[in-house]
Amino acid sequence: MSKEKFYVVWSGVNPGIYTSWTDCQLQTKGYEGAKYKSFETREEAEKAFESSPYEYIKRSSPGAPAQKKDVNAPLPSSVVENSLAVDAACSGNPGAMEYRGVHVASRQEIFHFGPVYGTNNIGEFLAIVHGLALLKQKGFDMPIYSDSVNAISWIKQKKCKTKLPREPKTEELFKLIERAEKWLRENTYTTKILKWETKQWGEIPADFGRK
């Protein structure tokens, strides 16, 4: 097991000390002027949090550009950069399916699941629910982008309307679907689910690049 680290966020969505790199990323990626650093012990982190970040990180020179974003291409101005993009990929349809969520501004992968036997549309649906649950749990207010019209429609209906038969090899998948549908029925959320316009903007940042 890797040793636990402590992440101090001096400037971000919610400044504080975090024990997860994912939490640190969600607080800082896409946040202009974000300041953060990892420490080996909680004691070091607490001491650092009470101090100036410039005692631990280099001060930017006047006029220096903000932290470089790890992006593959510039994003159109109409895209909300501080957002989560989700996508699924399937080897065959049905076949080995996986999905993931990626922070749009930084292109950092936030979560990944699979592969499991299923279809692309089911993966897109599960990815959106995974994103909704994660953002609600963490208390983050950012939209989710999906390029799947079907999955967005299913989310609104709180029902995965797949025609895939339920049989032994799909039983694991259907248990995931039931759990996702249950979450949608029992939870409210303010997260906006937006359609990623592939023709105008190119592939969604969470795309697996297998086309």
How would you describe what is shown here?
- With 211 residues, the chain is of the alpha/beta class.
- The protein folds into two domains: 4-53, 3-Layer(aba) Sandwich (Ribonuclease HI, Chain A), CATH 3.40.970.10; 82-193, Nucleotidyltransferase, domain 5.
- The protein is 30% helix and 23% strand.
- It has helices at 21-28, 42-49, 120-138, 149-157, 171-186, 198-201, and strands spanning 6-11, 16-18, 35-39, 84-91, 95-103, 108-118, 144-146, 193-195.
- The strands form two sheets. Strands 6-5-4-7-8 form a five-stranded mixed β-sheet. Strands 2-1-3 form a three-stranded antiparallel β-sheet, with helices on both faces.
- It is elongated.
What key attributes describe this structure?
five-stranded mixed beta sheet, 211 residues, alpha/beta, 2 domains, elongated, three-stranded antiparallel beta sheet, Nucleotidyltransferase, domain 5
Quick description:
With 211 residues, this protein is of the alpha/beta class.
Query: Would you report the number of β strands?
Result: 8
CATH class of the largest domain: Alpha Beta
Alpha-carbon distance between the two ends: 36 Å
Q: Architecture of the largest domain, CATH level 2? A: 2-Layer Sandwich
Q: In percent terms, what proportion of residues is strand?
A: 15-25%
The structure class reads: alpha/beta
Low-confidence stretches: 60-71
The 3D shape can be described as elongated
Characterize the biggest β-sheet: 5 strands, mixed
User: In percent, how helical is the residue content?
Assistant: 25-40%
Oligomer: single chain
Total number of domains: 2
Widest sheet, order of strands: 6-5-4-7-8
By CATH, the superfamily of the largest domain comes out as Ribonuclease H-like superfamily/Ribonuclease H
Series of H and E elements: EEHEHEEEHEHHEH
Average pLDDT taken over every residue:
87
Under CATH, the topology of the largest domain can be stated as Nucleotidyltransferase, domain 5
